[in-house]
UniProtKB/TrEMBL annotation:
Catalysis performed (reactions): N(6)-[(R)-lipoyl]-L-lysyl-[protein] + pyruvate + H(+) = N(6)-[(R)-S(8)-acetyldihydrolipoyl]-L-lysyl-[protein] + CO2
This protein's GO CC annotations: chloroplast
Protein EC: 1.2.4.1
Record's function text: The pyruvate dehydrogenase complex catalyzes the overall conversion of pyruvate to acetyl-CoA and CO(2). It contains multiple copies of three enzymatic components: pyruvate dehydrogenase (E1), dihydrolipoamide acetyltransferase (E2) and lipoamide dehydrogenase (E3).
The organism of origin for this protein: Quercus lobata (Valley oak)
Domain Transketolase-like pyrimidine-binding residue range list: 82-257
Required co-factors: thiamine diphosphate
Keywords: Chloroplast, Metal-binding, Oxidoreductase, Plastid, Potassium, Pyruvate, Thiamine pyrophosphate, Transit peptide
UniProt protein name: pyruvate dehydrogenase (acetyl-transferring)
Subcellular location: Plastid, Chloroplast
Length: 402
């Protein structure tokens, strides 16, 4: 099987895994070739499947932990296994079949199939007008997508990397987020803006940005972050059907994550968090790639006698304060784990929301583990230092529960 992401894996930050051997190609280059060879498939339960090539094994503590509720709910049903990028494509294709107004635009999304193959095969099936290749001009094609949404279409705009969409920040903020309001409700903007982001595998500072907090500050848009093939497909379908503009964040290291999803159609809520692991002692709030760092840390915590409750917040705007609040009322302690920057990040907004609404239920100050406020270094060892690691999560929980 040809892969674009190669051996990308959500759990590669583990000290027992040789992350230095994993490399990702440049996102911007138009001359990238698909490399056939070995790759790792990381399932949502944390297990690693090796394909065709010798690789080091992920060593994790073998403990009895409470099951991931999403995995448990789907594993018992008939279904099919998909990688995360394939689940995104399946959701997109189902919506394009269902609704002829759904279209895709972006760099290399057509016959090349997208830089991570999310749109592979769609141009052949639906034609060049519904799957539109654009020049390298994010401000132009994002503005065009917003205009198309105003006139009745449901466009999906793909950024080859979320960092490149900073070039379209004016269109996303002044047009996408505001036109419904400034037109007095005359225009709706049913657009989805999506693409890969986050710290990859030595991609350099400009390709490793976490921009969730940048877009969170824009009034009038919704934001979600997928973390499993199941919720990737469900959130994609929900975002396309929404009458609001939605930004869907995908992590560059999760595209090869594999999971069994139902054969029947389903749609996830854009405003609900996911209970990953019920627990009693501490609430751990996380999203995207950090979900897997948290679950890796949870195995060690269970060995140490702790019972953490893990919630994938998924909806970055608005927060699901119902699910979060019920958990805080039960555990009375909160740890936030994110890959976003500490200053002005998602964790800062979440801390403020919890303090404002549930402060009386807290028995300890909220701890927030975030990435360091520095451009992501290219050197692999320094890159790891900028991102939260499982050992830090274990230490933080021990401190909270003293």
């Amino acid at each position: 099987m040809a892969t674009i992401v190669g051996a990308a894996t959500a759990l590669s930050a583990s000290k027992s895994f040789d992350s230095g051997k994993l490399h990702l190609p440049s996102r911007r280059s138009l001359s990238i070739s698909e490399r056939k060879g070995s790759f790792l498939v990381v399932r949502s339960d944390g297990s690693v499947v090796h394909k065709a090539h010798r690789a080091q094994k992920l060593i994790a503590n073998a403990v009895a932990t409470k099951a991931d509720s999403s995995a448990a709910s789907t594993a018992s049903k008939p279904g099919h296994e998909l990688l995360l990028f394939e689940a995104l494509r399946e959701g997109l294709e189902e919506e394009m079949d269902r609704d002829p107004t759904v279209c895709v635009m972006g760099e290399d999304v057509g016959h090349y199939g997208g830089s991570y193959k999310v749109t592979k095969g769609l141009a052949t099936k639906y034609g060049d007008l519904r799957v539109l290749d654009t020049p390298i001009a994010e401000n132009s094609f994002t503005g065009m997508g917003i205009g198309a949404a105003m006139t009745g279409l449901r466009p999906i705009v793909e950024g080859m990397n979320m960092g490149f969409l900073l070039l379209a920040f004016n269109q996303i903020s002044n047009n996408c987020g505001m036109l419904h309001y400034t037109s007095g409700g005359q225009f709706k903007i049913p657009i989805v803006i999506r693409g890969p982001g986050g710290v990859g595998r030595q991609l350099g500072a400009e390709h490793s940005q976490r921009l969730e907090s940048y877009f969170q500050s824009i009034p009038g848009i919704q934001m979600v972050a997928c973390s499993t093939p199941y919720n990737a497909k469900g959130l994609m379908k929900a975002a396309i059907r929404s009458e609001n503009p939605v930004i869907l964040f995908e992590h560059v290291l999760l595209y090869n994550l594999k999971e069994r999803i139902p054969d029947e159609e389903y749609v996830c809520s854009l405003e609900e968090a996911e209970m990953v692991r019920p627990g009693e002692h501490v609430t751990i709030l996380t999203y995207s790639r950090m979900r897997y760092h948290v679950m890796q840390a949870a195995k060690t915590l269970v060995n140490k006698g702790y019972d953490p409750e893990v919630i994938d917040i998924r909806s970055l705007k608005p927060f699901d304060l119902h699910t979060i609040g019920n958990s805080v009322k039960k555990t009375h302690r909160v740890l936030i784990v994110e890959e976003c920057m500490r200053t002005g990040g998602i964790g800062a907004s979440l801390t403020a929301a919890i303090t404002e609404n549930f402060n009386d239920y807290l028995d300890a100050p909220i701890i927030c583990l975030s990435s360091q406020d520095v451009p992501t270094p290219y050197a692999g060892t320094l890159e790891e230092w900028t991102v939260v690691q499982p050992a830090q999560i274990v230490t933080a929980v021990e401190q909270l529960c003293q």
